[in-house]
Write a structure and sequence with these properties.
The longest helix has 18 residues, at 6-23. It is built from two helices and three strands; from the N terminus they run αββαβ. The chain is an alpha+beta fold. β1 (35-40) and β2 (43-49) form a beta hairpin. It binds zinc ion. Zinc ion binds at residues 48-49, 51-52, 73, 75, 83, 85.
Length: 96
């Protein structure tokens, strides 16, 4: 046992809960567009599909609303393993 009483613990929990509520004033909007791709803010020509964007550092998620004209994943552009996936093409279909 530490020196704290049950009442003190109750006060700690209450203040912790209040702090947690204060940090989350508004919940995320429910109708947010799904992330379809990732973009490198330092290199606008880079566009990564969800599969490749997840493993890349420093990229920001973009939604279909950010890509009205769609886009092609540029992963591996400089190698022979080019992805070339249309990021707006049904993301759930990962099979070949
Ligand atoms: Zn890709």
């Amino acid at each position: 046992m530490t020196g704290r009483t049950a009442l003190e613990y109750r006060g700690l929990i209450a203040s912790a809960l209040m702090a947690a509520e204060a940090q989350q004033p508004t919940p995320a909007p429910a109708e947010e567009a799904p992330v379809v791709a990732y973009r490198d803010p330092n290199n606008p020509r880079v566009l990564l599909c969800r599969e490749h964007g997840k493993q890349w550092h420093g990229v920001v998620p973009v939604t279909s609303e950010d890509l009205p004209d769609g886009g092609i994943c540029t992963f591996g552009r400089l190698s022979s393993l080019t992805c070339g996936r249309d990021v707006l093409a049904a993301p759930a279909e990962e099979t070949k």
